[in-house]
Amino acid sequence: MKKVLIITSYFPPETGAASNRIFHLAEGLKSHDFNVSVLTPLPNYPTGQIFKAYKGRFKHTSSENGIIINRLWIYASNSKNKLLRLIAMLSYSLSLVWFFMWNKMPKTVIVQSPPLLVAFTCMLFLKSKKRQLILNVSDLWPIAGLELGAFKKNFSYNVLERIEHFNYKRADLVLGQSEEILSHITSIYSEKKTFLYRNFPDFKSPNLYENPPHEKLKIVYAGLLGIAQGIYKLCQELDYSTIEFHIYGSGAEQAKIETYILNHPELPIVYHGQVSRSELHEVLLQYDITIIPLLKRIYGSVPSKIFEYAKLGLPMLYFGGGEGESIIKKHELGWVAEAGNYHNLNAIINSIELNMISEDLRKKIVENGKKEFDFKNQLERLKAII
């Protein structure tokens, strides 16, 4: 049984797309006869504080569903202060180096990127002719940070760009979850071996059913309430004449969203807090459609929600541009509104009639998703090259 180590900055019980993506990869590889272990920080995301069950520990090792998980110390922080965030990444990088020094590494290692600095640490210390280093790129940094306004083109940006290129150069294989990511990498290293790995999750879908009759279109958002998603602005811009808006999750904008709802009791906006992923899968099916917004179009980014909701048969309204928009259109997974155009968004919403949200539509979404992104087929192809 071939051994594979996955190094990631996010893993359950943490929530969010990054955690779910790596969890499914680990479970999938295990089901395909790999001996899988995971190296990750003590759980702290998105709160920026070590979870209660892990406080006071320097390291925690457990076996979960046959996967060995080593959780290492980190100086946890979700501060907006760039220096504190840098210290947090450096602390985990130092923990990784300490682990590398005292433990034998398997011949196949998958490294999650971003964060760039963590990936850089792995690429620098683990490169060997006898080892296959696989870089799993879910977002293009520092480009994404530039587009989000987090970075400016200066000396620091140039340093991050050099780190990015170093990581690609050292990788024996690069996994990318979008065509744009792979195009970007091959534009830098034309001969680099790449693999398109869509994050289509492998879980048992809840039974599909038609919702009981109701008067307004029930729209749901579930996920990170961060700056990039722009849920606070969405609350302000939506036309509520024909809809209800329901929100699940946590993040930087949570307090602002809760305050906005409190100050506008006349609006049909409901914040439900955060629920477990398995519970969320059941809960989501009571809604008519889900919205997937991005405040700005981010080159290379394809929200993992697309693949998860396709598995659930949940019709999507995509509002973020880029490759995600093309996927929704091409595979008939829902509706698309022009990125950043709230007038167009409201017009699209007003065009969606309740009788369009049928059981047949949900089944079609499930079938299209399975046909195009089937998780097991992806893993079979991946298994052949690692």
Automatic annotation (TrEMBL):
Q: Where is the Glycosyltransferase subfamily 4-like N-terminal domain?
A: 17-187
| Sequence intervals crossing the membrane | 83-102
Pfam hit, one: Glycos_transf_1
Q: Which InterPro entries match?
A: Glyco_trans_1, Glyco_trans_4-like_N, Glycosyltransferase_grp1
Query: Is Hydrolase one of the keywords?
Result: no
Q: Which keywords annotate this record?
A: Membrane, Transmembrane, Transmembrane helix
Q: Which Gene3D superfamilies match?
A: Glycogen Phosphorylase B
Domain of life here? Bacteria
Record bears the keyword Hydrolase: no
What is the protein name for this chain? Answer: Glycosyltransferase family 4 protein
Q: What is the lineage of its organism?
A: Bacteria, Pseudomonadati, Bacteroidota, Flavobacteriia, Flavobacteriales
